[in-house]
Amino acid sequence: MVIIKLGDCMFGKDKKKKSGITNSEKSSNANKTKELGKSIEDNIDLVNSIFSNDETLIVRRFQNKFLKTAKCCIFYFEGMIDYEVVNESVIKPVLDNNLSQYISDNNLLEELQNKVLANNYVRAKKNINNVVDALVRGETVFFLDGYDEALIIKINGWKKRAVSEPESERVVRGPREGFIESVETNLVLIRRRIKTPEFKTKFREIGERTRTKVCICYIDDIVSKSILSELERRLDEINIDGILDSGYIQELIRDEPFSFFETVGYSERPDVVVSRLLEGRIAIIVDGSPAVLTVPFILLEHAQSNEDYYNNYILATFNRLIRTTATISSMTIPAVYLAVVTYHQEMLPTPVLLSLSASRQGVPFPTSLSFFIMLLIFDVLRETGARMPLSTGQAINIVGALVLGEAAINAKLVSAPVVVITALSGILTLLNSRLLTPIIFLRFFLLLAASVLGLYGVIFGFMIIILHLASMRSFGVPYLLGVTRIMHHDGQDAWIRAPWWTMTLRPKIIAARNLVRETVGKNRRR
């Protein structure tokens, strides 16, 4: 026992430091439990003590020209308010109005709130916690001497990025608007497109330190109540210091946390999010992130593009099939080639086999190792290009691939077919960038299976992938919804993009409460 106590003292593990709270933090926490007083000086000291050593907290004192006893002050954080609006809607009205006419009224502060302050959002609060919350959100706090209340005035004024087309989801035809890092602006972009009182929102604050505002959006008469309650439960269970992007929420609420495939979708385009809301899904807007999450999310949404719905359905179906075929091919082409040239040469015509054998002359590495090396180099080049400035990154990708590929062939380190198939596989991956992570890992997985068992390994590996996908759920919805039921209305917008006049029903499992999307007469098809 003596040794333990000595060790605790030696490493400073006394009772005060075990709690991890310093004296200043204890004092600040104690102040947060206090109520506001009637003395303006006491209230100023209380706020300053909570935000001690913070030089960005500004206090501005002033008093009315006509009523000298009306001493006032405002608190705000530097750079988080619109100074011109504060001057015009708060300071100037209080300075210039003759407050003596309101002195006979019972509550001068209430008269200021209702008749003097020219602002749309003014709320009276007595608790110091409400004052602290308002200040850290960028709002302005108004104190009047002789009153134990504070007025919370919403005059946020920090800079925002302009609404523009998202770089990762560009289209030839369709809206050019994209979400930004403001939850209010993003909500407006959605509400402009859904003009119905059934569109509902619920707000939460997540993160002990950041207290990030999170908004849940849904259409009340379409959404599944069980999915909505499950989402709310998962959000309420999040206990973390801070949320800096919607990716935090995406990882914390997803099903299958160890899977390569995402079960929570996201988009930076309002039209995409609105289309998913109209199908019964739920959107999650996170303040500070331009990526809006949507649940539930199924596999075939990876193959869909928002531009599919703005073009002719025949062209959209053709493009969708190309994307689906390219995704599957990018995973399987290297593995199939490796299996054929290593284990099943009899499947190749003699001229092709002789040509491949000639290209292998002088290459010291086996084909399997050559593929692993080239694919790894390709992924390194892709990651390097993504981290560099746009123009420089594109040059690195193109020049790096050409130079390294040509040099590897000339040096007889790899064969020409390996370089060609690696490049083809990488290009096909770009058609569906949202599946980039699963494609990379599953490509290596199938390559490993092909190097051990040949085509049988590729088949078994692909079966394992399909079984894994079939076992997955996204908020109770099967991840492969619509894959097999092509003739059912759940599959009308899966492999193909059916004409609008045939898509009269929503997905049954997602929007079980309101299936009817459109009522179409026969004459409309003509």
Give descriptors for this structure.
single chain, 526 residues, alpha+beta, 5-stranded antiparallel β-sheet, 12 strands, 45% helix
Largest sheet: 5 strands, antiparallel
Biggest sheet strand line-up: 1-2-4-5-3
What fraction of the residues are assigned to beta strands by DSSP?
5-15%
Q: Mean pLDDT across all residues, rounded? A: 83
| Mass-distribution shape | elongated
Structure overview:
Strand 1 and strand 2 (71-77) form a beta hairpin. Helices cover 45% and strands 11% of the residues. Helix 14 (367-387) runs antiparallel to helix 15 (390-410), helix 14 packs across helix 16 (416-429) and helix 14 (367-387) packs antiparallel against helix 17 (436-453). It folds into 3 domains: 17-153, no CATH class; 167-297, no CATH class; 313-478, no CATH class. Residues 1-21 have low confidence and may be disordered. The longest helix is centred in the middle third of the chain and has 31 residues, at 313-343. The chain has a 5-stranded antiparallel sheet, with helices on both faces. It has 526 residues and is an alpha+beta fold. The protein has 18 helices and 12 strands.
Itemize the secondary structure elements and their pairings.
Elements: H1 2-10, H2 15-18, H3 23-32, H4 40-50, E1 57-63, E2 71-77, H5 83-96, H6 108-116, E3 122-125, H7 128-136, E4 140-144, E5 150-153, H8 183-191, E6 199-206, E7 212-219, H9 225-236, H10 246-253, E8 265-267, H11 270-278, E9 282-286, E10 292-295, H12 313-343, H13 350-359, H14 367-387, H15 390-410, H16 416-429, H17 436-453, H18 455-471, E11 473-474, E12 477-478
Antiparallel strand pairs: 1-2, 2-4, 3-5, 4-5, 6-7, 7-9, 8-10, 9-10, 11-12
Helix pairs in contact: 12-16, 12-17, 14-15, 14-16, 14-17, 17-18
